[in-house]
């Protein structure tokens, strides 16, 4: 029976489960201050590293802070950053890609080569460099990751623009003397928007991984902001001493959230671009 | 004795309302040349592939496909491999897709056969190619040359039966004629039985002894090539013959068969051709005609009806 | 034909490296504040010390000249001096390279063996095994290396006590033992990645006619999979394997932090914390160079994988 269930799981059960989980994290992130039972930063050294108990459903960490409250507060920071990265990289990538594809010629060569050059830099490396240059704060890593993911979006937007340019309706507008910018904004963009956005949304999971990696290293997030990455860092020593909960729970939060969003966004991207999932 | 005998063959594909193959009966005698004719989607390719035990994924089969006295459908994987490498071989429609682009022609020919280099050399010459193609890759050869390679590959195991699935469709007209005459001369030389799957009636008439006409997974009519084409008895055969393009003809308009073949999502009651048939009666829509006296039709034509 | 292909790829790689090094060097100077503030890492300094630093780093020269000097030095192996350790950057890197290199090599072996193996399993077998691999790769792709590190530490070090929790050991056997869990943690995500690509590429091949032909000619299934499916799927597999390398290198930052290993990644992390720019620049350049180099190697492998590139896709018939 388990074999049968397991073999059907990827096609039948996985997607709805992931959709529900992703929706749940979004709700948690939005209503974090209302849902959180304690102040996520309130310390109680007397109750440090306690297991699950009434009042602290998921126990406390080394500083006696409530793990559940920190998980909920961490959801907002963990989701907000990737959303910003997806938004920025989509807008910038579309501008670069559509410009390159529409103009062709040397601007295309220049922009495409520049985007290719960016691909030589792993996203996490760019983020680390930016944090080194601009110091603490959420802005630097978000900008860095947007830049690192830009080439993927711009390449897609460029290819879509090129194939859309071939279509007769755009030629008709050009013959009628419409300005290039007008055609791009009014006609081209709406036609490629869905596909670009769907593909771009797949970067959400990658951005969440990279941002939580930075916060695990203690880079880029202001102190006292609870994030899942920094919770793992805080909880690691306790885990090595046999109190795993404060480190394992944020680990589970990252994995489940990324898997859920990956499954949902990839399904969307496949559907929009007409690939069988 | 038959090299291939198919009886009561039915096949289902997942998520379809009716079987793709529905009661196919077919046989090929030793050294005989037989054509299986029909439109695309009629199930003719599926039928021929079953003689090799090749099934689409998720397909369910019932009936018997007997090759040299052995049921292919029940054969062990080991036995099936032996049949495929010794008894039955197949050549496909598109030789360029059928050859692995990363392997040399010579490696393709001797694949799975130890010490067959010499035979590969002989066969390459027998199909009209030079020995040097053995060291070449598929992308270095033309489509016609590749189909010759495929034929040489099929003859490596000295098979009793050669299945030809539209072997000339992907080739240009002059190459088509060359391949057909090559197949005929090889058949005479090696005594191989041929099952020729095609939608080309003229080709079928030219090179085969007997013809099966297939429609919607069923055999509509069968008989010797000469009589079947001069005096068709099934309205579908007659319509096919009328619809075939000819160079010399007084009217430039091509006759077409009205309507579409039934798709797999609808169940069939009665005759599969009833909806498109000019002479269908009420019983044609309710009762399925059996293949009696070589034709499956309630109102089978006589030669006089269709001169 | 092949000579032109090689020389073009070499030139492209050289240009990419030159442009990337310009970006790495220029980035520091685009940052707010004057370069010496960064070089000092925010510490106060006397005007004399400032002038000395400006002289030492040639900060009074024009930007382009400074870049050329820096790039020229880098080419001869002089990567500058660390602010934090007050020594040549090259020495710092050299001291940490063996352990990091071993870690990356072990992880790369795991990625290639398990990634291709599991991908093949999922492509060839449907049913429970295939689904289990699919679910497994999805989870792996949601698991960053530091999370994998925590999980492995908890199970194998704390619970079972099989592996040490910290340090990289002395001597090769001991180092391999110490680096077992770190290399697993490093590899997990990329195993999932490569398994997915392998599965997709092999399934694409499985649907092609030449595989049906091979089966129809009575070839044993084992040979069909190896010679026709896996062999022909190697293109995308090799490409992704190449991309994996730079991902593995940068992720050592996380794994070395999680396992307390003193390698290149840990050096990068500590250098970023104290804004030791020459070190950050050097390591960044190293990672980018490695990426360019592996991409070049992958491209050079293509003619071996595909005779159509080696011989030209032109028909001479």
Largest interface: A-C, 46 and 57 residues
Name of the level-1 CATH class of chain A:
Mainly Alpha
Instruction: Note the run of SSEs of chain B as H and E.
Output: EEEHEEHEHHHHEHEHEEHHH
Distance between the termini of chain A: 25 Å
Structural class of chain B: alpha/beta
Distance between the termini of chain B: 35 Å
Largest sheet of chain B: 6 strands, mixed
Strand order across the largest sheet of chain B: 6-7-8-3-9-10
Any idea what the shape of chain A is? elongated
Give the overall average pLDDT of chain A.
Answer: 82
Kindly identify the CATH topology of chain A.
MetI-like fold
- Range of strand content of chain A: under 5%
Mass-distribution shape of chain B: globular
**Share of helix among residues of chain A?**
over 70%
The total tally of domains of chain A equals 1
From N to C, what is the helix and strand string of chain A? HHHHHHHHHHHH
Would you summarize the structure shown here?
Chain B has 307 residues and is α/β, with parallel strands linked by helices.
What does this protein look like?
The complex is a heterotrimer of chains A (277), B (307) and C (317). Chain A has 277 residues and is an all-alpha fold. In chain A, 74% of the residues lie in helices and 0% in strands. Chain A has a single domain, classed as MetI-like fold. Chain A has twelve helices and no strands. The relative contact order of chain A is 0.14. The longest helix of chain B is centred in the middle third of the chain and has 18 residues, at 173-190. Chain B is globular, with a radius of gyration of 20 Å. By secondary structure, chain C is an all-alpha fold. The chains are: A mainly alpha (277), B alpha/beta (307), C mainly alpha (317). Chains A and C meet through helix 1, helix 6, helix 10, helix 11 and helix 12 of A and helix 1, helix 6, helix 7, helix 11 and helix 12 of C.
